[in-house]
Amino acid sequence: MTIWPGVLAYRGGLSPAKTHAHHSVQVLIARRGEFVVADALGTEVACRATVIPADVAHAVLQGVVDGEMVHLAAESDDGVELSRTVRRPAFAGAWAEAGAALLVDLDEGQWWADGLPYARSTVKPMRHPALAAALHLLPELIAAGPVRLRDVAVSVDLSESRLAHLFSAELGLAFRPYVRWLRMSRAIDQIALGQTLTDAAHAAGFFDGAHFTRVCNKTFGLSPAVLISEMTFATDSTRSRFVQAATTVRTG
To answer: CA-CA 20 to 30 A from 97: which of 35, 126, 166, 223?
Structure first.
């Protein structure tokens, strides 16, 4: 599993999950077999891929032994654009139609998350030096607790409105959700380094382990406990921290 601002991507076995909702756009793609998903009305659809909009109740009745699960921040450019491809957000049939469209340009052995426009943009040089300065400051600021756009803007000598615009325009993600994903990424990094859930939560600026768990569950439909109990950790040279699945993970 990899996590970076706005994106969480997992590759491996994906198990069923009871009806739930989370504040992220979820993509499921089977490398072998098919998923069976159900909407709040109980309509069941078998499909190789599905796009489930944020905050929509859904269940995964059948998982796969090899697949890809991607969560996108609902406020990110990628999340917004992908949500627009789901014609009827509450209906499983529309999720499967949007998923089928993703498979058209997906080559054998290619991972869908690797082609995300937002994911690619994170490695490009920033056009505005003040934004680069703000991104450099944030990892230090989040450990101290609440981070306010006003304070960051003052630190980089910009107005709040200008800095807010730069986050959305150049990162594809607004300031507040960017900070939220950065906190979760920092906490998972700390867990990977052997910290307890509580210590990792504090290091990322959450009030406590319970706060981190609530935010993680609401965003991904996955608890930090799943990351701890079912995954092993190793370094990824391309994106700070990489989490390898040790067993099949719940689909969120």
So the answer is: 223
